[in-house]
Description:
about 475 residues; ten-stranded mixed beta sheet; three-stranded mixed beta sheet; alpha/beta; Rossmann fold
Amino acid sequence: MSRQADPVVETPAGAVRGLRDGSGERYRALPYAAAPTGAGRFAPPAPHPGWSGVRDATRPSPTAPQPVRDFGRLDMAPYFGPGWVPGEEYLTVDVHTPAADGGRRPVMVFVHGGGFVTGSNRAALYDGRAFVRDGIVLVTVNYRLGIPGFLDLAGAPANRGLLDVLAALRWVHDTVGAFGGDPGNLTVFGQSAGATLTGALLATPEAEGLFQRAIIQSGNGTGAFTPEQARRVTTAAAAALGVAPTAEAFGAIPDERFLAVLPALAGLDLRTSTAMDPLAGLSLFSLVLPVQPADALADGPAGHVDLLIGTNTEEGRLYLVPQGDLESTTGADVLAVATRVHADPEAALARHRAARPDGTPGELRSALLGQALFESGTTRMARAHARISGGRTHVYSFGYRSTALEGRLGAAHTVELPFVFDIADEPWLHGDTRLLGPDPAPPGLAARVHGAWVAFATTGDPAWAPCTPQDFAVEAHSLNK
């Protein structure tokens, strides 16, 4: 296609040239904030200075500095994307739209997962063609990760990755009209860490008016660290780097050293006299808040926001099956997990054993992880939202079992994503070591899941009843076949 045929859009920061193809128009690497360099990596996101002329928006942006993550036999490249692609200007969004024609289409803003340390909007799973096909303007966001994004440091604002997402939402609210979107009909949605960030936005006063709906996929409304837990991580990181725990000292350290020191922090015990480890030892980075988002919803825009929220039925299997740990788990391993995430581990184990009288140690361990990482916080968030929103809380449970890894992966964490993005038939998702396994996806399931997301973003109704606000019951709609 000739350059003359490529679309050009005027934005407040300057003109951008994208690409037009059979799926609509795509504009990549659009900066919503200035590049975070040097000491600026530990500062709030600053406005981008803009540019003169027409900016090329046809190529993907760099990504936030991040380590390589290994999930054993399971190919997670479609989820994590290319990893760290060095470059200063990575606080960017991609916009995929039917047309930048002045239309007023629903807007969906996606916040990726990756344990607060990995991921980007370049991941293959976040293919926006189906959303654009269905009349949605899709925006995907990059944000700071790991030490620059979430380590709590003297002299730096907390939760800089969350501040990035908030800045991106402001950019979308002010700019998406130029791309054919309606800023008054905006849904923010995220998965895993991105879902936890989305939940935090519901409790953030500064987010008021920036979005009308939210979707939380396998997040954790009680996944934030307490200030005491955050100090433990900061102290350990500063000691490993040999510097003071301040933004000034960390600002002089290159990103490569931040990544190199991460293995030395693994295994840090975050249990305190008042809190258990909300992430079960799987990540040393999270939000840092005095009150969990699920308990602070009344402080933010949540009461005026429609919410779709849920989990997968076997979340914990992602952290055991690919590594070969499901079968090798012992009773001691199960107790160790229970001790990390429950104040009374024996009572917690008794409840899980009663619910799964024939469960193997690996299955009990998986259930403990799934509940601690996602299910408990999701239920608490759903109930809290139902109390204040007047029937705007829709809950789902995703139960389709992937046949990956000899059929053992099941309805694990991340398995719903190909169905949400309606790409479950893509060949690169199928095979024994790939996310959906060798079997074809159930006919129609992707259309139903994706269609529910589109309907919710358009009208606030995914086509099933909301939770009952009178008794705060969590009535999950099953999505499994």
